[in-house]
Amino acid sequence: MRIRIIILSIAILACINVSHAQIMAYTAKPLDVDSVKNDFENQPYFGLYKDNYFIFGPSFKNPNNTNTNIKFQISIAQRLTRSVLPWNTYLYLFYTQKCFWNVLEKSLPMTDLNFNPGIGLTKPLFVKDRFIGKLTFMIEHESNGRDSIQSRSWNKVSLAGNIWVDPSLMVHGKVWIPIIDGENNRDILHYCGIYQVGLQVMSPNRRFSGSVIMTKRLGKFLNYNTVIELSYRFLKRDNQYFFMQYYNGYGEGLLDYNKFHNQIRVGIVIKPQFFSEF
User: Of 22, 74, 95, 190, which has the maximum CB count within 10 A?
Assistant: First the structure.
């Protein structure tokens, strides 16, 4: 079953057609209203949502066979309407799947699978006839598909925003109203947080990017989960990047959401068309 999930995930990535020429056009210069609207209306219904990556690495604390693992994420979006909805929005179905795979253990167990479907409205933002980002209002569910004492789940009504400050700097944030339905994760806000903020910096030639994502946990003033990501595009006209991710905090996966992780992993990432979602 787990191998079939991996094969299906790879097949999904292979079927997604992202136009690199469009990516370079969007990131190299400010975008006008008409070009962005045309792309939202004419782009394929099916595409990438968040970063899609496959990375491997150890824990900083006492690395061993159980805490050195593969982490991979598959994230897609399906536009549900062709026409523009009220307030110049577009309706999307979102799906993200995050997996942790202990390939150094004898049976190669896939220890934690997190499923995150959602549906929401996305609104492109324009200032002085230039595209500067977008807002997304969505309802999402996240669970690990387990039962009994290993079951974890919660729901969120979320509002996310991505804003280009200039062509090389994007800031983003997300807040949510939680609806916790999992009996075994009633304290999840103390670990998985109540909102997140971050920024992404790109080099002028768009080959290199770095980002910081901080998720505020419930409780003390400075208790954040922190993710640092670096990526470098192999070839100028490709959409595959060398990728490094450092995770420090709680809530990396749902099964062990209340356990601290200090982990670094490297691998490859495929990025969405406009910019990365977090």
Answer: 74
